[in-house]
Structures are given as C-alpha cells and as structure tokens.
Write a structure and sequence with these properties.
This protein is α+β, with helices and mostly antiparallel strands. The protein is 27% helix and 28% strand. Strand 6 and strand 7 form a beta hairpin. The N and C termini lie far apart (40 Å). The mean pLDDT is 78.
C-alpha cells in the first residue's frame, strides 16, 4: 500500500519507526485463518434481520466485541537500508506480511520502498491480539505485578 501523511508533511528518516508500526488496524481481516475471517468481517445490517430484542442484543454484542480489538507491539526491529533525503519524501510503499497468527500473537514483516522502488527499511514485529478492555479497564491499584 502507498502511504503519506494526511497533513501533506513529508516523511523523514526520523518518522520511519512510526511508518513501520502504523500498519492498518484492519490488517487482521486479511491475515486471519479462514475460520476466523467471517468473525472479523464488518457487520452486515443484521440488526434489521434480527426479529427479537434478544437476537438484536446478540448481534450488537458480537459487533461490539469485534470492534474492541487492540494490537500492542511487543517487539519491533527496524533496519534502515538507506537514508531518506533530508527534506523527506511525500510517498512510501509499504508491504506487510505475516507468517503466523496464533494464540493471541502474530508476527509482521514490513518492507518499505521509495517511489523509485529502492528499499528504504525492513522491520519485523511481534504483536499481541487483545481486547481493548485489557488497555482501558480500571485495575485494582492494590494488586502488584507478579511473575
């Protein structure tokens, strides 16, 4: 996919870490195993199809849980293959692939090229797939972390 900043600001060398860590949040829909693919698809207008309040609540709950995913990066390596011009570039091509999505974790390989097709950077990530509640729910302040 081709990327650029929404503001039109040029992408500089200092922004490469952000570039490789900002893969599309719906990427999992393209990488997931076929049996999970249907679960991750955006909802159809199923609420209109649901006849009872109970069925409508079930549809809303499934849609809410699908939207509530979080993908925190655990490890990220970045290897710059060339320096971008000091003034930056407008566009970069980014290719993202994954070798495995399993047990709430996935890996990503990210390849970044400039408009001439020259390799700018390589990156490898390990990330988790969590519900957003893991990040947003209130925690017991008296509980201590344990190994």
């Amino acid at each position: 996919m081709w990327i650029r900043t929404a503001s039109g600001e040029r992408i500089t060398q200092r922004a490469l870490a952000y570039v490789v860590d900002s893969f599309p949040y719906n990427l999992h829909t393209f990488l997931a195993a076929p049996e999970l693919h249907a679960l991750l698809q955006p909802p159809r207008d199923r609420e209109g199809e649901a006849r009872t309040r109970e069925a409508q609540a079930e549809v809303a709950s499934a849609d809410e849980s699908r939207a509530g995913l979080w993908f925190p990066t655990v490890v990220m390596n970045l290897e710059a293959k060339m320096a971008l011009p000091e003034e930056g570039v407008e566009w970069l091509a980014v290719r993202v692939t994954s070798k495995q999505i399993k047990d709430g974790k996935f890996d990503l390989d990210v390849l970044v090229r400039d408009v001439e097709g020259e390799l700018v950077a390589l990156s490898h990530h390990v990330a988790m797939i969590l519900t957003i509640e893991r990040n947003t729910k209130k925690r017991d302040s008296s509980a201590k972390a344990a190994l």
